[in-house]
Fold each of these.
Amino acid sequence: MKKNKLSRAGLQGSLVGVLAALLCILIGLLCGYLVLLAINPAHAWSDGFVRILKGGFYDAPYGVGKMLANAAPLVMTGLSVAFAFKTGLFNIGAAGQYTLGAFGALYCAIVLHLPWFVCLLAATVMGGIWGAIPGVFKAYLNINEVITSIMFNWIGLFLVNEIVYGNGSGVMYDSRNTRTWNLRKTAGCEGSVIPDFGLNDLFQTNSTTIAIFLAIVVAIVIWVVLEKTTFGYELKAVGLNKNAARYAGINEKKNIILSMVIAGALAGFGAGLYYLSGVSEWNPLNSTSLPAMGFNGISVALLASSNPIGTVFSAIFISHITVGGSFLSTKYYPTEIADLISGIIIYLCAFSMLFRGKIRGLLFAGKRADKANANAETAPAAVKKEGK
Amino acid sequence: MLLLIKYTLLYGIVLMLVALGGMFSEHSGIINIALEGIMVIGGVAGVLALTMLPADAPAIVVVLVSILASAAAGMIYSLLLAFASINLKADQTIGGTALNLLATAIAVVLAKYFSESGSAKLNYSNKPFLFSIGGLELSVFVPLGLVLLIVSYVVLYKTRFGLRLRSCGEHPQAADSVGINVYRMRYAGVLLSGALGAVGGMAYIVPPVQTWNFEVGVAGAGFLALAVMIFGQWKPFHIFGAAMFFAVFKSLANIADSTFLASFGWSSNIYNMMPFIASMIILAFTSKNSMAPKAEGIPYDKGSR
Amino acid sequence: MGTADISKVTKEELSRMMVGRDVQLQVEKEPAKPGEVVLDVQGVTMHNAAHKKDSVKNVSFQVHAGEIVCLAGIEGNGQTEFVYGLTGLEKLSAGRLTLCGQDITSASIRQRSKDGMSHIPEDRHKHGLVLDYTLEENMVLQRYWQPEFQNHGFIRKDKVREYSDRLIEQYDVRSGQGSLTIARSMSGGNQQKAIIAREIDRDPKLLVAVQPTRGLDVGAIEYIHRQIVAQRDAGKAVLLVSLELDEVMNLSDRILVMYEGEIVGEFDPKKTTVQELGLYMAGARRQGKGE
């Protein structure tokens, strides 16, 4: 009987989390609709709002395939940020780790012609290395990982661009398209493309591979690591209370570095999924903006309240409305409306705690006497500052 | 050499303005990681004001109106951060990051809405902002920045307001106990950072070029300004020095082709990397004795006094 | 409930009114029967980088099995730092620590714990608990890695639950939802009881208890004092660090007074007075330097 009662409490917590996320989404969409109305009231409903809501389904099955292809790397960058959150770190560096991961994958594919799973591994390793740097700075110099990650995002971007571009003569650089070589059209690179097992035919796309399934498997593995293992127990303890973890004999420096390495590796893996599926190629001339995938990972993680399984759903949602935004007719609306909506949603997520309290109050008021649980809800991120 | 000084001053003033903004916010106890986004908003508001003013308006009016429009937009946008982190006690880093993401989206949507071409590029004239002294072409933001630097110093260290502001960042409980309204002071700090950050964003975009693509945002300048602030130990004149130091690196990229530096054959990527690498090295050495306000990043709750 | 005139009421009466039953402020205990040396501290010195001075200066003493040694002193005289050094949270700059004949001077925190040291920390929120973990997760904070609770790196949740339920029952830890209560939502007294249950149940050879009753109500204090005495009677060595002179006088078998990082005197609680201890704690007197 006791067990029954306990699992119900857990279920209730997840329910409140999901409802809070839905509320954020709802308000975000509403704001988006208002913006559409403001820009062009005549077309706001059917040509604007409905297309965003329909997402990939507006142009099925092609749109759905595109949505899935974009969701796979998004799950990974979302996991990267979520994993770091769980261990008390804010990995704003997913974009840089993603950049390095893209380089690792493309180098192994274009230059070394290695099979896809080796390329994927290389992406993971490169991402992990780039994640380790802020970890080391945090563990040994006590410099806030946020600031380090941001710096290394840019350093990574310039570094990768420099190597890929090589003053226009880099081996990976296709000067006609001003991008890296297209994997599917370049001799010797076919083996580096992630297999699709007929998904491309199904969705009538050319970049829908098994990437999304790989991402889901990784999400489950991360969930198991965090919830079921002593390693996850240690990581979370360090994240929630560094001093208590140290008191318990946990090596907090090692754990901080390890969790940044894993977070980086996840982002790198995501880049591998994206570029080895051939969704697009790397453009080394773009040196003013970091890959949006990295920052969207933050949205995904926040929307999922850092739950690894939740990131799968929130990544699919974000990908859904982004693809929906891309179907907007540019005659009436800028496609960035979708970014605007997800931006609003994350802003709301930043104080979703408040929503949770309210929802809990509405749903469970009176039913349960023990108020203890109400303030036991913990923030998704225990990001604390410790002197930069 | 003159060119190096010009670029250093132009870029250094940008970093300094934004870092001063960050300084006010952090002295009040709020980590303002949204500076990057505030710069973008300030930039887009200023540029839009520029494009909307009649072409024959006197230069002084153009300059004043657009800068004020930029500052006002920055303050309004920073209210979002203040509201989330002061009233709702949200995590300041997450709230700030959300505002950064949102800012680019807002700027692009606005730019596309107002531009004739339907792209996110806006054209404007930067003539009213430029003047030259003895062959050194400068923007009005240089003297404006220097004035604001001195004003910032005076406000922070020589006025009652500054003392109260700093007390909220060091020990809000104590500040509250002597009757200082912590919430109001923190709002003031964030709003000041919104104004300074926005003007900095405009100073970043307007003087060097006559057209700006807002899809680019401000390319990490806001984050660099945060590093400048940390390196400057949260003190106005230190921040000025730090900003100039970073700006020299950035400027090298601009003059590399025309000077002896060309013989190294380094690409712009390498120069672009320099300020970031330099800031990491400096942070590594200065992190041990941080002068950060003690209570920054911690939401203040009246109940927990 | 009731009201009482301050000038007339005694501590005992006041406590009874607060708790609702007779409270034993005076801990009843048998005379100590010290056994072999468990902890041997030799010339421990620690440097405080922030204040640029030595916070602990050449401290030497021993704790035997079956005795409670109390480190008394006014707050900020090096006790906290000494405990950090003893438990491995900070490094010593000089000296030697021996636990049951084993040199633990540079052993890791985990190693010290394996060698039989338990630590009830001074700040239960900073060190003692992961406040956002559940009670059961906190109960195994020091032993989650032991084979009993994990299998190839996977936590055996059923065993953790069993263990936690047993400790809750045995040590009377009260909480809203038993093992699944989030530690943050528990009362201070029950948080402290949980820590004490965890540390005592590990069956240590040496129990280091730092201000174990700070900020607690009389009922909880009484309970904790009994537990500490029971540990001593079971042959454990206990090092108690306390600022409360009453607690020092009541519990300890031997008192060491610390002043500005040094031990300035050793006393038998039966042969000294609170007044005498106070003089030493304030630095007005010291032994061994020709008073």
Amino acid sequence: MSDGPAIETRGVTRVFESRKGFLFREKTRTEALKGVDLVVERGAIFGLLGPNGAGKTTFTKILSTLLLPTSGTALVLGHSVTKETAWLRPRMGLVLGGERGLYNRVSGRENLRYFADLYGVPIAERERRIGEVLERVGLTDAADRRTEEYSRGMKQKLHIARGILHRPEILFLDEPTIGLDPKSARETRKLIRSLVSDGVTIFLTTHYMFEAEELCPRIAILSRGRIVARDTLDGLRTLVGGDRTFEVEAYGFEDREIESLRHLPGVSKVASEEYGPATRLTMRVRTRETTLDDVRGLLPGHPELAVRERRTSLEDVYLDLVEEEAT
Amino acid sequence: MAASAPAYTRARSTVASLRLAVLQFMADPQWLIPSMIAPVIFGLVSFELFRGYGPYFLIYAILGAGMMSMWGQTLYGSGWATGQDRNFGTLEPTIQSPTPYLYVVLGRVLWNVVSGLFGGLIVYAVVVGAAGQPPALANPLASIALFVFVMLTLAAIGVVFAAFYVYTRYAGFIQNIGEFAFYVGTGCMFPVVLLPFAVTPIALVFPPTWALDALRYVAIPGYTGFGWGLWGDVAGAVASTAVYLAIAGLIFRRVERQVLAKGNLSDY
């Protein structure tokens, strides 16, 4: 196995053109990806975050050979996703998830048998391998039931079982916990973590911040078809202006008060939003020298003032970056 | 973790696809209608339609109804199964597997041939039951062999249709338009020689036209058809089937690339 990155893309763009309306005369053009450059190292979970319509699924499909980029290059495991699909496909797994994507009239086991054959899992190993993955995803007892009887969570587990059946080197998971109840989502995350310990590289897309925070040592944020940031969570916190966040609430602030908060040492950003009858100021703070007492000291005319400190979350980072990109 | 890509064989994928098609058929009661009830209706209608038309009306009735039944099962079913993949959302994971999709389609086509033959047997039993006697086939064994051959020529067209289903979700629309024209034009119900001459050159483009003429040639005493004899018909059917399969192979290779460019694999 080569030691290069698991994924390396340069300038990947994707344009969708379609026709609709009477006699298909209306032509629409959507630029889903606008030059994505990304490097993902092997052997860990890499998270791609982005709002709906950011291009996450499009990018995942390009990397998993289900879609051609309009321009740019994309290498997975050092091989081109457009020219070396025959080499790549046996080595990658893809979990698109959802209610669809399974043969519902047959059992979970039969679904896996079919795909084991398409992936060339050795016949002598096939049944044992199917038993292993079913046990791993917790579907052993339901293996011989028709998948149309499965719950959403069970279907998701079966999707994952199919994705790992042929022991891929890299696994693409597109929003694996979307629509799952909290228990199923937690089980799925546990399963994903266990796959990394087998040495599989996992490329995960999600818009659940806590999921990315819990699972992904490195994260990229995709917004409107562009990667707006890529780093560890701590690196991203620094990028948006600090790992400390102060939340300040009162019944309205004057402009000069907000301006004075901006000038406190280490404060990189002060954002204001209406929060019911109150106004909430969110401050990003880079250093330790500014304290909550300093904030209180600058806002003496607010007896109802509430000030608290918390660690900058991935959600804060995400919202800052996506909003910044939008403006 | 896989140190190298697992080996796969195309034949194994075709068998897997055939197996899945059988399992889906068994699991879904809706298939009883086209596979068992429709042939009974076709047999009775065809028997009434041809009754009294010459000494070989039973053979015409069986061939007409049998083809009506098998046509849908074999040709239509092969393309439609790919449309089902679109509906189920299984087209993407199947295309994403290392197996070229053509070999998945071939497995389904094989099953459709078998189920089409089963429909033909039902038609035979119904017509014979209604007439109270078996047909006077000139060469029973050769007739059966050519019956199977007709199915395979139909299947070749089915493979081409399947490629269109991969390419676009609107393939069903195209197939529905062409279905009845193909059915009449290839001589499924009536020999092509009975149709206006202008139909003949078009009909000869389709392998079943040749195979059906060969079948009538061996089954009906005194049948002359196109006048090229049994082996002329068989040669024409084999050649045109080979051309269709070659075209299907080329189309599939192109279509699999084009759908990745269009990005419409998940449309349904």
